[in-house]
Write a structure and sequence with these properties.
Elements lengths: L11 H4 L5 H25 L1 H26 L3 E6 L4 E6 L6 E4 L5 E6 L10 E5 L8 E7 L2 E7 L6 E5 L5
Antiparallel strand pairs: 1-2, 1-5, 2-3, 4-6, 6-7, 7-8
């Protein structure tokens, strides 16, 4: 007795048995986009993440301002207004090169050299061509959590530490 192979079904009945690769890829792409949107909204809403990101951004800008002072040989200033949470950096006595604003939910406090203050309510840290600075501290806080950005006066080093310290 010989066995015969059964013929495979042909036509619409054969195609209805599963999904095509294109359909699976489309579903995966839609799910990835939805997860990215939800993930971005959740991360942006977390107070701790917002505080860490803002302190990292300010520290990076302070380091870039110091690097510009070293590279150009011209004094550079980082100026922040704690009341409005706006900052700017660039050459001393010239138009700012970069500027930005911190989120409204954050509180800002700054301790800097009085001689470096450009005006009432503003705090400035000056970086000199040799890498030194006037030094200072910027504290960002929200809901009992705080990050402290310390700028050393001798070599202009920038450190970010958790905790408020003495403002």
């Amino acid at each position: 007795m010989t066995r015969r192979a059964r013929p495979l079904p042909v036509g619409p009945a054969a195609r209805a048995a599963g999904f095509t690769l294109l359909e699976l890829l489309l579903v995966a792409a839609v799910m990835a986009a939805a997860l990215a949107l939800v993930g971005g909204a959740v991360v942006g809403a977390l107070p701790g993440q917002q505080l860490r990101e803002a302190s990292g951004r300010i520290a990076a800008e302070l380091r870039a301002t110091r690097a510009r002072a070293l590279a150009t040989g011209a004094h550079q200033a980082f100026v922040i207004d704690p009341a409005t949470r706006r900052w700017q950096s660039g050459p001393v006595d010239a138009a700012p090169r970069r500027q930005g604003e911190l989120p409204a939910a954050l509180r800002v406090a700054a301790t800097v050299a009085r001689e470096a203050q450009p005006g009432p309510g503003q705090a400035a840290i000056l970086f000199f061509a040799d890498g030194s600075s006037t030094g200072g501290r910027i504290v960002l806080s929200r809901d009992g959590a705080a990050w402290r950005i310390e700028v050393g006066w001798l070599i202009g080093s920038v450190r970010v530490e958790r905790g408020e310290g003495a403002p």
